[in-house]
Amino acid sequence: MKAFFDGGCQQGVGSGGFVIYDEQGKQLGGKALYFGPEASTNNLAEIKALKSLVSWLAEYSAELGPCVNIEVFRDSELVINFLLRFAKPNKPHLREVY
Fold first, then answer.
1. Which residue of 18, 59, 71, 88 sits 20 to 30 Å from the alpha carbon of 79, by its own alpha carbon?
2. What confidence tier does 15 reach under pLDDT thresholds 50, 70, 90?
3. Most confident among 48-52, 77-81, 92-96 (mean pLDDT)
4. What is the DSSP string of 20-56?
5. What angle do CA 43, 96, 62 make, to 5 degrees?
């Protein structure tokens, strides 16, 4: 499986989304997300999009099967470094979701 997520912010209003495909390229799920002013930076919108992807995977895990390999693609190295604990957020608004 492959999963893609992204988030962004413009003028203090954040949005994002994710999409998931099976091995044959069939879309299994996805969601466009509006975060509003609660995701007031690009990094925060990215983190919220990733959290939404993980929530979706948890909700549909029984349908996906017990041993599913998922490749996750993103364009924010910082968010992945947070996730893997290679880096810690130094801004208070990011620490809240870390």
1. 59
2. very high
3. 48-52
4. EE-TTS-EEEEEEEEEETTS-SHHHHHHHHHHHHHHH
5. 80
Burial state string for 6-25 with b = 16 or more CB within 10 A and e = fewer than 16: bbbbeeeebbbbbbbbeeee
Contact partners, residue 7, CB within 8 Å, separation at least 6: 14, 15, 16, 17, 33, 35, 39, 42, 44, 45, 46, 47, 48, 49, 50, 76
Judged against a pLDDT cut of 60, whether residue 98 lies above it is answered with: no
The number of CA neighbours under 13 Å toward the Cβ of 88 is: 4
